User: Fold this.
Amino acid sequence: MSEQKTVPTLYEWAGGSPALERLFVRFYERVPQEPLLRDVFAQMDPHHAQHVAAFVGEVLGGPKVYSEEHGGHAHMIRKHMGRNLTDEQRRRWMSLLLETADEVGLPDDPEFRSAFVGYLEWGSRLAVINSKLDLAATEDTTAPMPQWSWGAVGGPYQG
Ligand code: HEM
Assistant:
């Protein structure tokens, strides 16, 4: 009988919702010390970190909490519209998030990190593009929820 191997999702490999919440709570604790980012997030919802963790968890193969309870992908797109984010801000957002991933002990194996960074690069560049759109003038913000997986590396680090 052949052995059946189950490939964990990126969400499971990351440590599920507790790990992603730890990551984003700590990240948004650090944002006010960042001159490039603090004004962007000055008015953020008090549950912003949990919402972003739920969104990213769903993208990485976790439960559909953001779609079912927080307005789904269209809501996330609308939250970026009209904010005129710069690439300099995006780069700081990325590097601060990756520094925080190390700080909170998110898995740092090559397989997980390459897939995770791939998603963040893609998503953060779209956030900047969407931030140049005018909320009032854009009717269609529907797009399926992105789904990210291991990609070319094919599965978790095996040692
Ligand atoms: C993969 C990249 C990103 C993801 C997954 C993401 C995710 C999200 C989500 C889910 C929300 C809505 C939260 C809610 O429902 O309350 C949101 C809002 C927001 N995002 Fe992002 N985002 C990304 C990149 C960025 C970047 C690069 C910036 C700025 C440099 C940014 C700035 C904001 C701001 C200012 C809000 C509104 C916060 C508020 O006032 O409530 N995002 N983002």
